[in-house]
Structure formats: C-alpha cells, structure tokens
Amino acid sequence: MSSVVINDEFMYQFRKKLDENHFYGVDRKTFFLGVGGEEVIVETRSKFMSSFNKARMGTPNNILLRVGNSLLIDNRLSGFLDSEILNSDNVIQLWNFVTFFNHHISNLSYTALTLYALDTLDLSGKTILDLGCGEGVLSLFVLKKGAKKVHSVDGDSKYEVLIKNNLRLNNLEPNSLAFIPALFHEENKIFEAIGNHQSNLALVNVGPHFGESDLVAFSLLNAIPGINQVLAGGYYSNSKFGPTRAVIRLASLGFKKNLKYFDFNNQHLNFLVER
Ligand SMILES: C[S@@+](CC[C@H](N)C(=O)[O-])C[C@H]1O[C@@H](n2cnc3c(N)ncnc32)[C@H](O)[C@@H]1O
User: Going from the N-terminus, what domains does the chain have, and what CATH number goes with each?
Assistant: First the structure.
C-alpha cells in the first residue's frame, strides 16, 4: 500500500469540496503537540450533519481528524476523495464514525495523541494487543501501518459489528483483527481467546476515567507472551488524572525502560515504556 501526502493544500481542497456540497463548515480546531506547542498535529472539523441526519440537524459533529500525515474520515465523505487516496495506507475510513462523532473533543484529543505516538513506531509485522479498543480506531490504524495482527479487547460488545464494518471498508483482512468482548478482569476469557499468540506492543488508551480499569488492564500483561512495549493514554498533566500511578504500576511489572511522554497542548499526556 502506498501513502498520500495529507498536507495543508490537500486539506484546503478537501474542505472546499465539502463546503461546495453543503457540508456547512462550523469549526476547525488545530492542536499543538509538545512543549512550546511547536508542531501542529491534529485538525478536526465539525459540521452540521443535516445532509445525513435531519434529526440531528444543528448538532456539530466531528467528521474528520488529521494527525500528522494520516487522515481519518467518516465513510460518508468517501465520495469526495478518489480511490487512490482512499486505498492509501494513511487514510482510514470509519463507518458512521458513530461514537467517535459524539465524543467530547477531549476524548478525541487523547485518541489523536495515541495515533501520533503510534506514528513514531515501526509497526510492520508486529502483533498488537489493544486493551479497551472501543470503536477500534487504534487497531485499524496499526493494521494500516503494517501490523500483522491485533487482538482488540473491549467490555462493550457493541463494537464488534462496527469494527467488522471498518475492516471491510478499509480493505483489511478480516482475520487480521480478533475482537474479544471481555472486561479486563475476565482474564480467562481473554487468555483463552489469545491462546499462545505473542504480542509485541500493548495499547491501553483507557485512562483513569474508568476507575482502576487501566491498572487492571496492565495486570494482564505478564501473562501474555512477548509484550515488551506499552503505550498508555488518556492521562492529564497536573491533575488527579495524571499518569504517575500508571507509570509506577507498569514499573512494578518490569516496564522501566525508555519512558517517553507525549503531550498535547500541555494538557493531555500519554506515555510509552519498554522492558
Ligand atoms: C475512552 S475509550 C478509548 C477507545 C479507544 N482505545 C481509542 O483510543 O479511541 C475506553 C474504552 O475502554 C473500555 N473499557 C473501560 N474499562 C474497561 C474494562 N474494565 N474492561 C474492558 N473494557 C473497558 C470502554 O468500554 C471504552 O470503549
């Protein structure tokens, strides 16, 4: 698969097409990554969805997300891009963008930050464990970036259908992703589904908003062979939702090497750690 260049000119032309087709532009948000905010990484756009759903007329929704050179779009926008762009490895279509659409911008931000962090890694041929996968955005992204297999766990089984649709939309091999509907404390169910498959990298973009869930997810890691890297997200700097207890817990499991933080507007915080 080849990549396309998603630069400012590309975005300008794309937006123009959307506007011409009555996608009333409402809001363009640009975020900055890193100390000093020197690098623009994410662009979201909201719009009135009147042409899709009359009932929600007037509600602004996110329809596209650009993280660096990657573009995630609601699949209903696919008609505005040619097939070469749609099939490239840095464009991801999301079926209805459903729950993502309704996400508060801060949720969208920490998923975006995880995508950014993932983009710094070589994922080709890797096997990945996505704990708390939700609508599967991270799982799809890693497959598009060359990962061989993903085990995607979420306690909410409604995501299974959505993820299947997203695999099909993006021409990804259905068997490249195994969705495991389980809560993190249902260890046996998870271990049985994974079998003796190795995983290289665990993604835990759950954050502290689900109580101890992130810590429960970490407790699975020692029983899954091969994991030597964890990318954890959803934390905030300077608040009770900070990453300290997660960093300490992972250190106790042997993940102490090369700790690296990724920050977003000096507020959201994700980290990568190895063992
Ligand atoms: C904020 S969403 C993040 C979704 C996705 N990882 C992303 O980055 O876009 C967190 C997800 O974790 C799941 N989750 C939270 N606690 C869980 C638990 N104890 N067991 C299984 N899944 C859980 C939720 O159902 C939700 O889909």
Answer: 8-103 (no CATH), 107-274 (3.40.50.150)
